[in-house]
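Hello,

Our lab assistant flagged a job as stuck in the queue for most of the afternoon. It eventually completed. Since we weren't sure the result was trustworthy after the delay, we are filing this so someone can double-check. Below is the sequence as submitted and the structure that was eventually returned. Let us know if re-running is recommended.
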Amino acid sequence: IPLRLGWKPARVFAQLQKGYPQRPDGKGGVANCDTWDNALLSTWIKVDGHDVPMRLEMKRLMPGATNTWYLEILQQDATRSNADIAGEIGLSEAPCWRRIQRLRKAGYIRSQVALLDRRMLGLNAQVFAQIKLNAVGRSNLAEFSEAIRQFPEVLDCFVLMGNFDFMLRVITKDIEAYERFFFEKLSKVPGVQEVNSMVALSEIKSVTALPLEQAAFGNAR
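-- returned structure --
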């Protein structure tokens, strides 16, 4: 039975009713509901030639899916009100607020920030810098890491496997500003042996939303 992430309970159950129709005698079928709190799937299956009732509480069947809906909404637009989110999910405001607070406490929501347009701010240069450390630098990674954290021009720093040890994403006003950053800051970090800079001409895709269909939930249910 095809279902879509983000559907409200009423729509989900309308779809389920197509796959689990009520029998002519009135038994089985899917009970209508307005929220996941009273969502119940009731149908009948054959066991040794006999009809056996099967009842599934949807909120117990899909607890992780509910978390996914909250996070999908928030990572698309974190400014939406609790009432707005509750209305879309099909839940009253109080339990909606509690679920979001549990997700925050569990660490699934690290922070809520405003995403700025760097080009409107005149930050037009985006450079990816591959860093190779010498033997001394590799023996003191903490010093290198701390130095990189102090540079506001570096937005991301990744540890790599391969010919280089780190990859930096650097944002500056223009290439001249990156050149100054390179000579005055980056090249002076202890342990840096080689820097390979690659200038990004344009962005084909740049998003912050995670692929939640692959997500796993632990302690936020």
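-- support follow-up --
The delay was a queue issue, not a problem with the job. The result is valid. The first helix runs from residue 9 to 19. The CA atoms of residues 119 and 125 lie 9 Å apart.
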